[in-house]
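User:
Note these tokens:
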Amino acid sequence: MVFLILALGVTVTACGRGVGAGAGSGGDWPAGRRFQSTAVTEAGKDRPLVAGTRIDLSFFDDGRLSAQAGCNTIGGSGRIDGDRLVLGDGLSMTEMGCDGPRHSQDT
């Protein structure tokens, strides 16, 4: 799933409170905020998601984040470096058995 999130351009809406510095992170870590996709593009073209799903990205006060794209969840540490989200080492991901379309979307 990390490849999906990094390879796609995602237009998101924000939920939650304002930007703050997270523990162990640089820049303006959006602690306590959650972003949900409103549109997804891949290589400049629209990429429809499985019906009833969206990409969800949550940032926590301690510098961790989690992402979900319809089935499994990936999480770990991260930081903001300029205008980039940099993922830390040691990301973990659930491995639930999903139906084919959601499994493919996670991949």
Summary: Helices lie at 2-7, 100-106. The radius of gyration is 14 Å. The chain has two helices and eight strands.
